[in-house]
Design a protein that fits this description.
With 133 residues, this protein is α+β, with helices and mostly antiparallel strands. Helix content is 21%, strand content 41%.
């Protein structure tokens, strides 16, 4: 679907130089923003529409730790976009070993009304909703 290469930075790790769980979630959301951008929804456009994302529940499974300065890539293999958005991403080290899986739920947030909303029509135009990718 979409993937991106990264390097584990000092901000991502704990005192043992192992990437923290919150960093995996952050990279998942970051990759989702890249996905939106590639589909015509830049952050500027979302701001113009007064939309942002509100993070919901997540599930994290670690198979192998990623270490400080290690090269890795994140692949978003599943993205279900509707009133709620479900994202599933996988993290691979430079040996192409699956190190972790993240399933993340986010929702559309109206910055003016300050509430979670259903998927706006402007968003529905960009995506074939109710189809799992």
């Amino acid at each position: 679907m979409i993937s991106k290469n990264y390097i584990v930075t000092g901000e991502d790790v704990n005192d043992n130089m192992v990437m923290e769980n919150t960093a995996y979630i952050s990279y998942t959301i970051r990759l989702f923003y890249h996905f939106l951008f590639n589909n015509g929804l830049s952050r500027e456009k979302l701001n113009t529409l007064h939309l942002s994302l509100q993070e919901g529940n997540h599930e994290f499974v670690c198979h192998k730790n990623l270490i400080f300065t290690e090269h890795f890539f994140v692949e978003m293999k599943h993205c279900y976009i509707d009133d709620k958005i479900s994202i599933k991403s996988f993290f691979f080290n430079s040996k192409n070993e699956c190190c972790a899986e993240v399933t993340k739920e986010v929702e559309w947030f109206d910055a003016i009304r300050k509430e979670v909303i259903a998927a706006p029509k402007q968003i529905q135009q960009h995506f074939n909703l109710n189809n799992k990718s």
